[in-house]
Write a structure and sequence with these properties.
alpha/beta, 48% helix, 13% strand, TIM Barrel, seven-stranded parallel β-sheet, single chain
Length: 485
């Protein structure tokens, strides 16, 4: 036995020191106390005012630091979510990583024609089926924005398509509080009632404040409803450094954290113990094109740094990876996806979304999703680190083989090679002659073939017919309400 023997069971990575995190946190508290934030909606304003916040100019709220700290004390640091197949679970707690798609892209590249076109309801269903089939995609967002349905109720149609397509946990978007309420009803129908949902939720709702420092009526109403009904909520901005937030990365983090903390405070004022996830898509505005860059190294860097902050605060973290500014599945897409996946995995972020984005979030790509699944598998192997034990040090095996021997026939090799060595499903490791004989397929061609295989063959776990009928009724009722409004 050795004294003081330390082991790195996994790789180690961080961006910020505790002192830097503390500075960012105190700066965010200073912004909320001194600058304030715009909060719209009577219920939210009343809760903040009654809790001791200073409200002036109708909706400018200054939140005292003690109230933020009090809210943080009652916000859970661990969230468990399960799909309609209750075995399909994600656990959001410190350094546990889960990868999933992004949501609401207006366009996709048709996998059969290569045409760039709008998403249909069937495409939303197919995106969910692809998630359902991929082993390293742990949760599903819609990936696309469904067309061909009523605009005011598209979110219910989208939720139904996602639910049909996968039995994995879901992250949902919603038009407003009413849309969230309908989707909650649908989730409860699937699980067997509100009590079952409260035990282990089926979905998480994504809610976005408006940078800089503004919280719309819709955002406030959604976070309050989510808190009341035990729906875990992501409350996080999509900020452009140099446009809707400071151009300095530290300054952008201060504003991002301040905006997230408003959601934390509102949720805890509504119901202590409400589950809130912070984070954000915080990236640079490309000064040449004015886009929010999804492939920028700063996006991966800020996301990793915000993960350090979230862990220090004891909150789950919503991060970003597997996305690109490229228009097609090319070398740029591969580089940006692999870099972002690796950094996000190393950071220990919990809910890592946007896998499958191309063209800065305008295209939700089935090809990108399938290729990134392979990159995530590689990243998970790297995270596994190197196990150092007498068995893995293999001194006895080295002695048996001796100089000039080989290890192919050793029992040690047979016992350990599947655990030690990662096996690709899409990467090609053949010699040139074998690669040529098998059709000389490029990575893009292999990816597309896998996409088509899933679309042609994968069948998700079906929803019971009577439950599916009730879900369709809820969607139809929502359509009718808005038709009459």
């Amino acid at each position: 036995m050795k004294a003081n023997y330390q082991v790195n069971a996994t790789t180690q990575f961080s961006v910020l020191s505790d002192d830097q995190i503390e500075e960012i946190f105190h700066a965010a508290l200073d912004v909320l106390e001194r600058v304030g934030t715009r909060v719209y909606g009577e219920e939210g304003l009343a809760l903040l005012r009654d809790a001791g916040c200073l409200v002036s100019d109708k909706d400018l709220v200054r939140i005292p630091s003690w109230l933020v700290k009090e809210a943080l004390n009652t916000t859970p640091e661990r969230i468990v979510v399960a799909g309609r197949d209750r075995r399909q679970r994600i656990v959001l707690e410190k350094d546990k990583i889960c990868f999933g798609t992004g949501s609401d892209c207006p366009s996709l590249v048709d996998p059969y024609t290569d045409e760039v076109r709008k998403y249909t309801y069937e495409d939303i269903y197919n995106a969910a089926r692809i998630t359902d089939a991929l082993p390293h995609i742990d949760f599903h967002m819609s990936l696309g924005l469904t067309s061909g349905v009523p605009a005011h109720t598209y979110d219910r149609h989208q939720f139904l398509a996602m639910m049909r397509g996968t039995s994995k946990p879901l992250v949902i978007t919603t038009v407003d509080r009413e849309g969230l309420a309908d989707q909650y009803r649908m989730a409860c129908e699937v699980l067997g009632g509100p009590e079952e949902f409260a035990k282990v939720p089926l979905c998480i709702v994504y809610i976005e404040p408006s940078s800089p420092l503004t919280h719309s009526v819709e955002a406030v109403e959604k976070i309050l409803y989510a808190a009341e009904m035990c729906i875990p909520a992501i409350y996080t901005p999509g900020m452009m450094c140099g446009a809707t937030g400071p151009v300095t990365l530290a300054g952008a983090m201060v504003q991002c954290l301040a905006e997230c903390l408003v959601g934390v405070v509102l949720a805890q004022l509504k119901r202590k113990g409400a589950a809130v996830i912070i984070g954000g898509v915080v990236s640079t505005m490309d000064m040449a094109t004015s886009i929010l860059s999804y492939g920028a190294p700063e996006l991966a860097l800020i996301s990793a740094a915000m993960t350090d902050v979230a862990k220090w605060l004891g909150l789950p973290m919503f991060s970003t990876a597997g996305c690109s500014d490229a228009k097609v599945l090319d070398q740029q897409a591969a580089i940006e996806a692999a870099m972002s996946v690796t950094i996000a995995a190393l950071s220990g972020a919990n809910l890592i979304h946007d896998v499958g984005y191309l063209e800065s979030g305008l295209i939700g790509s089935f090809d990108m999703l399938v290729m990134s699944n392979e990159a995530i598998g590689m990243a998970k192997r790297i995270l596994g680190g190197i196990t150092v034990t007498p068995e893995t040090l293999a001194v006895d095996v080295i002695e048996r083989v001796g100089p000039g021997g080989h290890y192919l026939t050793q029992e040690h090799t047979r016992q350990h090679f599947r655990k030690e060595v990662w096996f690709p499903t899409l990467m090609d490791r053949q010699m040139r002659r074998g690669w040529e004989a098998s059709g000389k397929k490029t990575m893009a061609e292999r990816v597309r073939s896998r996409v088509k295989d899933i679309l042609d063959q994968h069948r998700p776990l079906p929803i019971p017919a009577e439950v599916e009928a009730r879900l369709e009724e809820i969607v139809a009722e929502a359509d009718e309400r808005h038709k009459l409004a």
